[in-house]
Amino acid sequence: xxxxxxxxxxxxxxxxxxxxxxxxxxxxxxxxxxxxxxxxxxxxxxxxxxxxxxxxxxxxxxxxxxxxxxxxxxxxxxxxxxxxxxxxxxxxxxxxxxxxxxxxxxxxxxxxxxxxxxxxxxxxxxxxxxxxxxxxxxxxxxxxxxxxxxxxxxxxxxxxxxxxxxxxxxxxxxxxxxxxxxxxxxxxxxxxxxxxxxxxxxxxxxxxxxxxxxxxxxxxxxxxxxxxxxxxxxxxxxxxxxxxxxxxxxxxxxxxxxxxxxxxxxxxxxxxxxxxxxxxxxxxxxxxxxxxxxxxxxxxxxxxxxxxxxxxxxxxxxxxxxxxxxxxxxxxxxxxxxxxxxxxxxxxxxxxxxxxxxx
Length: 359
Description:
Strand content: 15-25%
Order of helices and strands: EEEEEEEHEHHEEHEHEEHEEEEEHHHHH
Structural class: alpha/beta
Distance between the termini: 48 Å
Shape: globular
């Protein structure tokens, strides 16, 4: 089955919604679902992407809902049977304050029909710069809905943009804050996030433009950023850690977390990769999510040091004390430069392990 994706039903996440017609103004996404594959073709702000995902590789089931004529209207995801051991490894204990993710409700509002992107495309005047705050989650790619849903299924706590704007101290009760594609935020929310001692930016292009709220009318209004009120303005907060350059890498073949200031950031847009990349989710619980890249860099600088070898191999679940020098010269350089993927590098190490070449 296939359909043109304008919005995605989110049931059992925040507020149950039985139907959705929320148009994502700057992105058109088509999804085809067969017994074996999910095909995704999307265009975001003029950039085209095509993904071909084997369903067998998914950590979650993706379910389609059709109308009476058999046309697919929406999607949801749920845990797959037979993967309980995987979930035991990835989930966090219910009710803990270890981590919270922020659902980008203001960003959802900005991308909906009649919102900011109609103004950017000059299909609407400044009236489209004030939009309703959503009362339900009609998510799509730009509001990082798959990421939000995956974390919800793994027991992560969640708050919405307006929750933080109303009460910035709400984040202080959590050890770690996970930011999704929270592109549009208020100044109070920006300050609350950036002042927290442990923040992981799972999506690039967060904290990009400032909005203000009006809870009497239940609206947000664009204030500054994303080319407004002057076309030369990019990040509305002039935030030096802005990582929007990674927004259009939706393949995430060479994903890794890196350190920027006091923050941990992902170098790609993981909206679909998070559905089948166990290690990415697992690293959200690690004290230092950037360890994978750190260990690789440490090993490439000291390839004969036993400590760096053991650290590197343990990242990939391998016990060993030796890595051939050609791996250092060729494969690590290709991986760091992005010419081979994370999976390619992992598969290569596991192949060498199976051939007893890492002992």
